[in-house]
């Protein structure tokens, strides 16, 4: 996932950028830098609290008061760091960029079999949700009500869709799934991955990582090549 989140407008070459409509009314405000240990600790507490509440309630249902209460801080302290919930998510996404790109790179390295690549693709998707569930929930829910985030979400999904569609085309050259549309298969697999990861990780029961990854990998592999990973 290659994300370009410089503030200002929507980049048609890169990922969507937040506009002024995503901030509170009035003059633009920029959170100050907090070089002190106390400032960093407070922001980390707010971020961790926001992730906890959003993973439990979803972004749209979460209020700044909810986040502040979870963090044990005042609601006013939130605005020392972020102009709005949307601005917070934008900063999260900037931090998330490099981590997501590293996971995506593991799927495209040379020398893997189709079975191994299916497993790596499933593992990368699962681990991204596992470690960044609140960020993904936030962006996906904002995409329902905000055009910039809708474009951003589409671009996030476009990376695995493009990879899987190309995998299908290569498989078709070898005689697999000859009558299927590569793009539709890819979109269906990514949609299934997204929903499965969300359901498993947002529930109250702690999922078995390896069992979930293997389930996703088997479905991915069978949909394209037939057979199983065993």
Automatic annotation (TrEMBL):
Any idea which UniProt keywords this protein has? DNA-binding
Q: Where is the composition biased (Polar residues)?
A: 1-10
Disordered: annotated segments? 1-42
Residues annotated as signal peptide: none
Q: What Pfam families has UniProt attached to this entry? A: TetR_N
The DNA-binding region ranges are: 63-82
Biased composition (Basic residues) is annotated at 26-41
One GO molecular-function entry: DNA binding
Matching PROSITE patterns, A to Z? HTH_TETR_2
Q: Which residues form the HTH tetR-type domain?
A: 40-100
Name-wise, this protein is TetR/AcrR family transcriptional regulator
